Amino acid sequence: MSTSISVPSRAALTGVIAGFLALPAAAATCPAGFPNKPIRFVVGFGAGGGTDVIGRAVANGIEKQQKWTVVVENKPGAGGGVLNSWLKAQAPDGYAIGVNGTDSVTINPAQANVGYEWQDFDYLGSGMQTWYALVALADRPYRDLPGLIAYAREKGRATISVNGVIGEILVKQLAKEYGVNLVPVPGTGAAEAMTAALGGHVDATTQGTLHVAQIRSGKMRQLVSLINRRVPYAPDSATLAEQGSKTPPLESHTFFMTPNGLSPEIKTCLKQAIDEAVNAPEYKAQMAKFDNEALNLGEDGNIEINRRLAAFYKDALGQK
């Protein structure tokens, strides 16, 4: 599943790139002679989508800060799986960097034998966390998760359009926890799930950030934050834990990775370059404008999350 981000206009994206022009140069510590040719940022989803926006913004930051040439390409398909299969077969020399999402290395292998696991890659850092939420039309009679659960008990069920497998798993976990009939309604992605909710065809929807404009306009209400904290655009909307739920929060990050076996020296070099780009004030400000958060978990943080989520999804999807 592609990173869920409010995709900017061409003018806004130009602003992301232009914002890096003000950044001071900060050279990463790299082996002599590296890099001596363009570095490829290969994105696991199509051009113009959220993952692509992040990859291009970080690539432009690195070019300005490090004076490198970074070429961005796209290898979409299979929820990021096409990129992962390709990347696994590349030489671990630091010149091919995948830009993909947590779901691609944790959910995909839990659903089928895709030929790769999360352990097949080295992780250089991440660029963003998606702010997942459960939302509904503002005129619905429930204002939070307990209200939706009570509604489902009274009516016999509640329907929830989902933005992919991650949303479907969340709905099933909540249904199991509370012993109510919560029906996930799958579709082609976040846009279709949002359309169903706006049209009143379902009782609620799981979303990444497509809902933010609707909340700000007053048309929709956030019932619960599905990540591990409250979010700036809906500060009164409590988290799952704050509302008494034991269902784990959703976590989805856009990260940068290479095939296994990257040398420690080149890995350090690339990690520093990515960290400097992601932590630049201009990058953070631009991500905030798109209702997302600039966040670099670092190598260890990505490994910890992938290990934990891979085990969770294999259990949730019936694999051992």
Helix percent band: 25-40%
Q: Roughly how many Å apart are the termini?
A: 23 Å
CATH superfamily of the largest domain: Bordetella uptake gene, domain 1
What CATH architecture of the largest domain would you give?
A: 3-Layer(aba) Sandwich
Largest sheet: 6 strands, mixed
User: What is the average per-residue confidence, as pLDDT, rounded to a whole number?
Assistant: 90
SSE series: HEHEHEHHEEHEHEHEHEEHHEH
Q: Helical element count?
A: 12
Integer tally of domains: 2
Strand content: 15-25%
Structural class, from helix and strand content? alpha/beta
CATH topology of the largest domain, what is it called? Answer: D-Maltodextrin-Binding Protein, domain 2
What can be said about this structure in brief?
This protein is an alpha/beta fold.
Description:
The protein has two domains: 186 residues, D-Maltodextrin-Binding Protein, domain 2, CATH 3.40.190; 93 residues, 3-Layer(aba) Sandwich (D-Maltodextrin-Binding Protein, domain 2). α2 crosses α10. Strands 2-1-3-10-4-11 form a six-stranded mixed β-sheet, with helices on both faces. A five-stranded mixed β-sheet has the order 7-6-8-5-9. With 320 residues, the chain is α/β, with parallel strands linked by helices. Pfam families: TctC. This is Tripartite tricarboxylate transporter substrate binding protein. Belongs to the UPF0065 (bug) family.
